[in-house]
Structure formats: C-alpha cells, structure tokens
Design a protein that fits this description.
Structural class: alpha/beta
Largest sheet: 6 strands, mixed
CATH class: Alpha Beta
Strand content: 25-35%
Number of helices: 7
Helix content: 25-40%
CATH topology: Rossmann fold
CATH architecture: 3-Layer(aba) Sandwich
Strand order of the largest sheet: 2-8-7-6-3-5
C-alpha cells in the first residue's frame, strides 16, 4: 500500500459499511441488580489493520512533521503495532462496562455459566486517528447492543461514532502531557512514545469513546424511568 507522509494521520483498524442506528426499549425493563455479560469483537470480514499518512508538503515534510528520529516506514509500522483491533475493541467495551455498571447498579457476570440476564455485545467498526492544526483526535465507530438472554430480544442498540480529543484522555493526563505532548503539531512526540505508552494512549481513547456510548445508554434508561 502506498504510504504518504503526514499532517493527516489515519489509522483504520476495521472498516465496514455502517449507518447511525438506535433501538431503545429500555422503558419496559428494570435493569437494576440484573446481571450483564459483556462481550466484544471485531467484524469477521474486517480488513487487517492498516495505516497511512498523507501530507500536502510531500516527502520533504518528514523532517518537519515526523522528525529525523523516526522514518516514515518506521512510523507506519509502529502505529500498526499499537493499533491492534482486538485490543481496541476490548477497550471500547471496557468503557461501556465501567459506566453502565457504575450508574445503573447492574451486576457483572463473568461468563455464560453465571446465567446472565442480558448480553452486552460491542463491535468495533472503525478506529481513526486524525491530526490537524487543533490537535490529535480519535474517531471511533462502534455498535453496542443489549439483548435479553433467553428471548434474544434486543432491548437497546446504538450504532454511531464518537470523536475523542486525545489530550483529554485519562492516559494523557496521567503522563502530565496534555497539549504539550499530544496537542497540535505533535505527531512526532506521539510517535516518540515507547510502544507500550503509545498502545495505552490509543486504548484510552477507545475506552473514552465507550464511556460516551454508555452515556447515551444512561440517558435513555433514565428517561425511561420518568
């Protein structure tokens, strides 16, 4: 695949045709103290993780944008290693799990052997990392559905995208970085992070996106209790 060099940085870990959708039957269900089993996956026909970087500045932009410490091919390979689709899907699911279990008072089931009342399935459809004059943003597209075990009825489904400012993720805050490391024009500093920290930053953004999806669920559930 042709690789260009970067003002716009795009990582695509999984890409399917998807459209915004929303199913909400929560007003008919009291979920407090019910048990949920959380599952996650990536689509079976998802393409392999791929990365490309583009820049109107052409090859000469590598010194300005990437910096002399890391070549373009190395940057692409580093991002591909960090943007593991399965790991990002798990982080997305974790963000949903943390919010729903905290605010709704549900119980977490560890496996089907626990005979959960509901199954929460999260699918990572797309994960994109964009750099612009305003900083680095992550666009995460996912589908989350909650199905009643036994009947198989979907009582809630949300299919949409969430955009996360990377400087606002919990991991960026833990680094004490904020806009200094992950702000505008700091692709080079992001790529200079050790592999483990780069993976953690990408995971934190996916987890934050999951929390935002779960916030949609919390609002729907709260509205149904009125």
């Amino acid at each position: 695949m042709m690789k260009y060099l970067a003002t716009l940085l795009l990582i695509t870990t999984a890409f399917l045709f998807s459209s915004c959708g929303h199913t909400n039957e929560l007003e008919h269900y009291d979920l407090k103290s019910k048990s949920f089993l959380y599952q996650y996956r990536i689509p079976a026909d998802a393409i392999d993780a791929s990365t490309w970087i583009s820049s109107p500045g052409g090859p000469a932009a590598i010194i300005t944008i990437i910096g002399s410490s890391i070549a373009s091919d190395e940057a692409v390979k580093k991002l591909e290693r960090a943007a593991n689709p399965d790991t990002l899907a798990l982080a997305l699911s974790k963000g949903i799990e943390n919010v729903t279990s905290t605010y709704i008072g549900i119980r977490r089931a560890k496996s089907l052997d626990d005979n959960p009342d509901f199954i929460v399935e999260t699918v990572l459809d797309k994960y994109e990392l964009h750099s612009s004059d305003y900083g680095i943003n992550v666009k995460v597209e996912g589908t989350t559905r909650i199905a009643e075990r036994g009947t198989g009825k979907v009582i809630w489904e949300y299919d949409d995208s969430k955009t996360i400012s990377m400087s606002n993720t919990w991991y960026a805050g833990m680094l004490g970085a904020g806009s200094t490391v992950i702000g505008a024009f700091n692709i080079a500093r992001l790529l200079d992070l050790p592999d483990s920290e780069l993976r953690a930053v990408l995971k934190a953004a996916a987890e934050e996106a999951g929390a935002k999806i779960a916030e949609e669920f919390r609002e729907d559930y709260s509205e149904g209790r009125r």
